[in-house]
Design goal:
Blueprint (H helix, E strand, L loop, with lengths): L2 H9 L7 E3 L2 E3 L6 E5 L6 E6 L3 H16 L8 H17 L1 H12 L3 H22 L6 E2 L6 E9 L2 E5 L5 H14 L3 E5 L6 H12 L7 E3 L4 H10 L5 E5 L2 H13 L4 E5 L5 E4 L6 H13 L11 E5 L3 H14 L18 H16 L3 E4 L3 E2 L7 E2 L2 E4 L6 H4 L6 E7 L2 H8 L7 E5 L3 H10 L4 E4 L32 E9 L1
Helix pairs in contact: 2-8, 3-5, 3-7, 4-5, 4-7, 5-6, 10-11
Bound molecules: nicotinamide-adenine-dinucleotide.
Nicotinamide-adenine-dinucleotide binds next to helix 8 and helix 9.
């Protein structure tokens, strides 16, 4: 990465951003805008359109019209594939520009952002471009006097609501399979991180995606997100975000057209370290990276460290040392390892969690507070809290910030009991040299993904989805396609 190129992009003034409706950039129906504040220094970067329900309904109508006239859904698969590949090409060509734009409003350190945002978004779009002409219907094994066919059809209009932590990556997890299957999409980016995703959507049109197939409306979740959720004309709603919003979306579906709702929610993922881990130094560094990168704003972050009692003190000290060695600061500086907390709201929430944790008996091993306040940005020291009991608020709730809860355990059964002692089930990790123990833990810990002797970093070939209150219906891999198709049976008498 070239720091001087990054500085030139950082200095570029930004025009106001409109919605993307029917292939055009448009203002809100009442002309309202929202300021976009950079977590890097607290300065206003630009504005985005502050959408109204009317804006959202126009976007949905545009998506519906595009779907019905077949301009995309009826396009030959080879042509759709070519458009999606061109889109991935454009994302790659504009990778640094997109990454810097994203960092300016969401605060992820640039090294991670470049890889995880345009890098992974382009790879995801290519993956589904390649998959789209390999999804076959079926012939059922019926008796010889009938023919049973199973058609796989696009669902129609997909609503996609995206969080702020990795807008392009998570946006592509929804857009890739939804568009590959021939659907139209209405996207709702998060209030505090719309810019890179809006730019990525504009590139889709440049690549040849017909107008109206992809619309994106910015604004408040409670206004435009609600209008999307309550629409009678959206067939499937896919969401990544918090459990509270997920619950609302299920209510909206019940109050409107019973649209299918898929939820990717939060986690409180256990990273379990046994004394027989192959390399405890490595485990400590990866455990620190697994919670502190992107300032803990990662859905699968290993936010609960469960450590076998025999090595507890020594291992926690090593994690604290690894945390203290990580460089926190300006996310556009290539040497930064932990960027900014996304917003003042998020920062206040992080600090409240730390305060409650100590009031409930936890001990701060390192960190604990806000730092670099003179920058005007939102930065927090990576924080390790030990002695966190299963009843504690910090054990049971997702912080979505750079705060690690540490709990000691004694033996496999105790580790499993503690690992499963929350309502979440998104991700987990286990560190051991014992193969049988590793497999037992994979089976026993209730999560959507388990890492062994590593943490994080899975690619697009495997699903990512939670169980329990971490959600349903995984993103990524060929399995994700099922969310974006309907099955239709044809029963033919011969
Ligand atoms: P959030 O629920 O506050 O917001 C997510 C999106 O929902 C935003 O676009 C927001 O505008 C919209 N929204 C808010 N209120 C709404 C309403 N009433 N109706 C419709 N839409 C509404 O979540 P967030 O703070 O942006 O994201 C953080 C959460 O996302 C964390 O819990 C994190 O774990 C989770 N997450 C999960 C995954 C995963 O794959 N499981 C990935 C990343 C983030």
């Amino acid at each position: 990465m070239d720091q001087s190129k990054i500085e030139a992009l950082r200095a570029a003034p930004l025009e106001p951003f409109g919605h993307l409706i029917d292939g055009k950039s448009v203002a809100a129906s009442d002309g309202a805008v929202m300021e976009v504040v950079s977590p890097i220094d607290g300065q206003v970067l630009t504005t985005v359109a502050k959408g109204t329900a009317e804006d959202m309904n126009r976007a949905i109508a545009s998506a519906r019209a595009a779907f019905e006239d077949g301009r995309w859904s009826g396009m030959p698969p080879a042509a759709r594939k070519a458009v999606m590949h061109r889109w991935a090409d454009l994302i790659e060509q504009h990778a640094l520009e997109l990454a810097v734009l994203g960092v300016r409003d969401n605060g992820t350190e640039i090294g991670m952002a470049l890889k995880a945002e345009p890098g992974s978004a382009a790879a995801t779009i290519r993956y589904y471009a390649e998959a789209l002409d390999k999804v076959y219907g079926e012939i059922a094994p019926t008796s010889g006097d009938v023919l049973g066919l199973v058609h796989k059809e696009p669902v129609g209009v997909v609503g996609a609501i995206i969080p702020w932590n990795f807008p392009m990556m998570i946006g592509a997890w929804k857009l890739g399979p939804a568009l590959a299957m021939g659907n139209s999409v209405v996207l709702k980016p998060a209030e505090t991180a719309s810019l890179s995703l809006m730019r990525m959507c504009a590139l889709a049109l440049e690549a040849g995606l017909p107008s109206g197939v992809l619309n994106a409306v910015t604004g408040e979740g409670a206004v435009v997100g609600e209008a999307l959720g309550l629409s009678m004309d959206v067939d499937v709603l896919v969401f990544t975000g918090s459990g509270g919003t997920g619950r609302r979306l299920l209510r909206y579906a019940a109050q409107s057209n019973l649209k299918r709702v898929y939820l990717e929610l939060g986690g409180k993922s256990p990273n379990i370290v046994f004394a027989d881990a192959p390399n405890l130094d490595e485990a400590a560094k990866v455990a620190a990276g697994g919670i502190f990168r992107n300032a803990g704003q990662v859905c699968v972050a290993g936010s609960r460290l469960l450590v076998e009692r025999a090595i507890h003190d020594e291992f926690v000290a090593a994690v604290a040392r690894a945390a203290e060695a990580m460089r926190v600061g300006d996310p556009l500086d290539v040497s930064t390892q932990i960027g900014a907390v996304n917003s003042e709201t998020q920062m206040a929430q992080n600090l409240r969690f730390v305060e409650t944790a100590t009031a409930e008996g936890g001990e701060i091993v390192t960190g604990g507070g806000r730092i670099l306040q003179e920058t005007g940005g939102t930065y927090m020291a990576p924080t390790v809290v030990s002695g966190v009991t299963p009843e504690a608020t910090l054990f049971q709730n997702e912080v979505f910030g750079p705060v690690l809860a540490v709990t000691a355990f004694e033996g496999d059964d105790d580790a499993i009991r503690l690992a499963n002692a929350t309502d979440f089930g998104l991700a987990g990790g286990v560190w051991t040299s014992n193969l049988s123990r590793a497999h037992r833990m994979i089976r026993a810990v209730r999560t959507g993904v388990m890492h062994v002797n590593t943490y994080g970093g899975a690619d697009g070939t495997v699903p990512l989805g939670g169980v329990g209150q971490s959600g349903n219906g995984a993103d990524k891999s060929l399995h994700a396609i099922e969310k974006y198709i309907d099955l239709k049976t044809a029963w033919i008498k011969l």
